[in-house]
Design a protein that fits this description.
Elements lengths: L15 H22 L1 H22 L13 E4 L6 E6 L6 E5 L2 E4 L2
Antiparallel strand pairs: 1-4, 2-3
Helix pairs in contact: 1-2
C-alpha cells in the first residue's frame, strides 16, 4: 500500500449506477404494492409499462423514409452547377424551394 488515492468520481458526485439501482428498487416496490393490492392490477401495470416502453423506443428509431447514404467512393456535389432540377412551393407564404442538379463524382 503506497497510500495513493485512486482516480475516481469525486465524493460529492453521485454515480450513475447508484441512481439506476435506486430506480430499480423503487420500481420493484411499486410493482410489489400493486400485486399486493390485486394480482390483476399488478399484471395490468406491468403490461401497460411494457407497452409504453415499446412505444417510446419505436418513436426513437429513424424513419424508413430517410434517403439512403451515397454509395461508398462517390461525392455528391450540388452547389456549383447553377442548374435547377425542380422548383417546389414551400410550406410558408412566399417560400420557394429550389433543388439543384446533382453531380456524382468519384473520390480520389
Amino acid at each position: 500500500m503506497t497510500g495513493k488515492k485512486e482516480a475516481g468520481p469525486e465524493a460529492g458526485e453521485p454515480s450513475r449506477a447508484a441512481g439506476v439501482c435506486v430506480l430499480v428498487v423503487l420500481g420493484g416496490v411499486v410493482v410489489g404494492v400493486l400485486f399486493a393490492v390485486d394480482e390483476a392490477v399488478g399484471v395490468l401495470a406491468v403490461v401497460g409499462v411494457g407497452w409504453v416502453a415499446l412505444y417510446c423506443s419505436a418513436r426513437r428509431m429513424p424513419g424508413l423514409s430517410a434517403p439512403p447514404p451515397p454509395p461508398p467512393g462517390t461525392t455528391v456535389l450540388a452547389g456549383e452547377t447553377g442548374e435547377i432540377a425542380r422548383v417546389q412551393k414551400g410550406p410558408g407564404e412566399g417560400m420557394t424551394i429550389l433543388y439543384p442538379v446533382r453531380e456524382e463524382t468519384p473520390e480520389e
